[in-house]
């Protein structure tokens, strides 16, 4: 999709010449001749670059900058004016502008400034993505366990990471299906691409197609701008579809096309979009029963179930409870500096070992978080 630029200037000649230059360089351009028109456009559209004059018929361009940054925090703002002074340049930059161009505009200067602004925005987006991903260190160290079932799962993850086949992970809620999916991704050849998790059960069946495949402006009521779907965001990486059994049969047919053909249609357009994505799906249902009940399409199941990983419930691997408990004690003790709870008493560990955990690892983690917060001493 081409980058989008907004030009705000009451001089039509400048708008048209700048539009011709940007369109030639591959931009999708919108023009506004007043501040209020620009604000209206900003409310309904997303722009990567905004060129604005400092002197507009109805407002000062400097006053417009905070509105742009509030609506589009990552947009790069380039201020233009025929009354250039050091003071106004400094004010524009302090207010949030990326750069400052004096009129008359130079073609080379506009192109260089625009290219650098786009590069800066892409770099900022990548840093945000990397910080988010690096805030958690994904690998086998986040899958805690020494029981035979977990040793088997670690072996399967290593083998699965080498391939690029689709994966179906089954297991009760709270067993760590997403952790297994992340471990596969971050140990695979797709590790430099994005890992995009989607909880299908949290999205209504009416909206899931729009969320996964994206849509174009005007596709339906409320579609006031183009939206990139999760499938396209995950292209080059891994798409994790949790609770795949909660989706509709119609959606499953379209997902099958993504798997078989490597393409999909955004809502509101007949044109196909290519996607190079590995799909890892998960469900807490029994797949065979879900197929028999008409919840999960059999053809989709076979396409997803190239590699199958079943995670056992915590009650079936009780020997992992002490390791998990100690891991969570350390995790939550570090989060609050003045918390003194650093170890588990024998009686606490005995109680933890005696419980069956219907909520699995998630329930154990919540119990430890509560205990660390309310423990009166260091035990």
Silhouette:
globular
Q: Care to count the β-strands? A: 14
Whole-number radius of gyration? 26 Å
Structural class: alpha/beta
What is the CA–CA distance across the termini?
56 Å
Proportion of residues in helical segments: 40-55%
What fraction of the residues are assigned to beta strands by DSSP? 15-25%
Strand order of the largest sheet: 2-1-3-4-5
Low-confidence stretches: none
Oligomer: single chain
- Major sheet size, sense and barrel closure: 5 strands, parallel
- The whole-number mean of residue pLDDT values reads 89
- What is the H/E order? EHEHEHEHEHHEHEHEEHEHEEEHHEHHH
Helix/strand layout:
Blueprint: E1 4-8, H1 12-24, E2 28-32, H2 35-44, E3 49-53, H3 61-71, E4 76-81, H4 86-95, E5 99-102, H5 107-134, H6 148-162, E6 167-170, H7 177-186, E7 195-199, H8 208-213, E8 214-215, E9 227-228, H9 230-233, E10 238-242, H10 249-261, E11 263-265, E12 272-274, E13 278-283, H11 287-292, H12 298-304, E14 307-310, H13 321-335, H14 346-354, H15 360-374
Parallel strand pairs: 1-2, 1-3, 3-4, 4-5, 6-13, 6-14, 7-10, 10-13
Antiparallel strand pairs: 8-9, 11-12
Helix pairs in contact: 2-3, 6-7, 10-12, 13-15
């Amino acid at each position: 999709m081409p980058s989008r630029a907004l030009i705000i200037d009451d001089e039509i000649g400048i708008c048209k010449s700048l539009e011709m230059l940007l369109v030639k360089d591959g931009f999708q351009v919108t023009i506004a001749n007043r501040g209020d028109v620009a604000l209206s456009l900003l409310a309904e559209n997303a722009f990567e670059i905004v060129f604005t004059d400092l002197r507009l018929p109805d407002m000062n361009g400097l006053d417009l900058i905070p509105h742009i940054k509030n609506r589009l925090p990552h947009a790069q703002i380039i201020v233009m004016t025929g009354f250039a002074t050091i003071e106004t340049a400094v004010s524009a930059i302090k207010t949030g502008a990326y750069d400052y161009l004096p009129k008359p505009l130079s073609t080379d200067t506009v192109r260089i400034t625009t290219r650098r602004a786009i590069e800066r925005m892409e770099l900022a987006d990548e840093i945000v993505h990397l910080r988010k991903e690096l805030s958690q260190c994904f690998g086998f160290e986040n899958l805690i366990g020494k029981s035979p079932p977990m040793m088997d799962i670690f072996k399967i993850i290593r083998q699965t990471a080498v391939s690029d086949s689709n994966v179906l992970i089954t297991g009760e809620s709270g067993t760590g299906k997403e952790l297994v999916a992340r471990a596969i991704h971050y140990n695979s050849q797709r590790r430099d691409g994005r890992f995009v998790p989607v909880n299908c059960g949290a999205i209504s069946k009416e909206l899931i197609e729009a969320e996964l495949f994206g849509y174009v402006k005007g596709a339906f009521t409320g579609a006031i701008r183009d939206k990139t779907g999760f499938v396209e965001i995950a292209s080059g990486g891994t798409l994790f579809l949790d609770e795949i059994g909660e989706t509709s049969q119609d959606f499953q047919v379209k997902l099958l096309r993504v798997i078989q053909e490597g393409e999909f249609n955004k809502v509101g357009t007949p044109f196909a979009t290519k996607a190079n994505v590995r799909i890892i799906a998960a469900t807490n249902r029994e797949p065979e029963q879900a197929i028999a009940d008409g919840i999960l399409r059999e053809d989709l199941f076979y396409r997803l179930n190239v590699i199958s990983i079943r995670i056992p419930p915590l009650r079936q691997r009780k020997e992992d409870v002490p390791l998990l408990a100690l891991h969570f004690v350390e995790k939550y003790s570090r989060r609050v500096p003045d918390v003194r709870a650093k170890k588990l008493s024998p009686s606490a560990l005995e109680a933890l070992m005696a419980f069956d955990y219907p909520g699995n690892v998630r329930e154990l983690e919540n119990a430890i978080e509560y205990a660390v917060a309310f423990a009166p001493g260091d035990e």
